[in-house]
Design goal:
The structure is a single chain. The chain contains 9 helices and 10 strands. The protein is α/β, with parallel strands linked by helices. A 6-stranded mixed sheet has the order 6-7-8-3-9-10, with helices on both faces. 40% of the residues are buried. The site of adenosine-5'-triphosphate (ATP) has 12 residues, from strand 2 and helix 1.
Length: 235
Amino acid sequence: MSIQVEGLTKLYGHQNAVNGISFNTGQGVLGFLGPNGAGKSTTMKMLTGFLPPTTGSATVCGFDIIKQPLDVKRSIGYLPESNPLYTDMYVKEALAFIAGLHGIHEPVKRIAEVIEQTGLGPEQHKKIGQLSKGYRQRVGLAQAILHNPEVLILDEPTSGLDPNQLIGIRQLITNLGKSKTVILSTHIMQEVEAVCNHVIIINKGNIVANDSLNNLRSGNNNQSLEQIFIGLTNN
Ligand SMILES: Nc1ncnc2c1ncn2[C@@H]1O[C@H](COP(=O)(O)OP(=O)(O)OP(=O)(O)O)[C@@H](O)[C@H]1O
């Protein structure tokens, strides 16, 4: 299992944003679901080593998130919800900069591969600030996968995309899940059904479901994922 989480907790002041959650996950796409404010982004920030947990522990590819944060960051590609990008840079320039940070071998070749993989070809000569939202998401994904990490953590990568862009990005995530461990946060249940093998639902900082999509449905009278989600989190 490339991600192992044990009793992970985050307190912001007195507020328990994440409340002692435990789970393991390996290759495939894990849907990480929950209502607004449930603790998804906080969990993702702790797993990527950007936010220290209050208590608990986790390992990513065998590296401890507290004791080995650099190894953890090397093993992870992270697309944050806000997708911060260098809008004044050209697409290739930004990717070359990130490749330099990672010390990537043969960067020109790798950048060409990633541009192809993320469908950035037609827009590769533009400045990031000139790109549509869908293409900016593709740049965020390209940056996340550039160093070929074993684990990808994607926080709402498809929010605000038109249906054409959605199909392309979902296909890319599905393909990535064939060889990598992907944690995907989304509010779109259709997307979970299209892309995820396994689902974790978090509510008020607690895990309320952790199962395969099929088991979740059969254990809940074959209700739709949306109905199951509402039943587990509307309290
Ligand atoms: N830096 C912070 N300081 C204080 N409270 C915070 C901070 N970041 C998040 N919180 C609180 O922690 C809780 C969990 O927030 P988090 O962003 O992890 O939720 P989320 O599940 O990702 O929500 P969303 O779906 O809206 O993105 C919320 O109540 C939020 O207000």
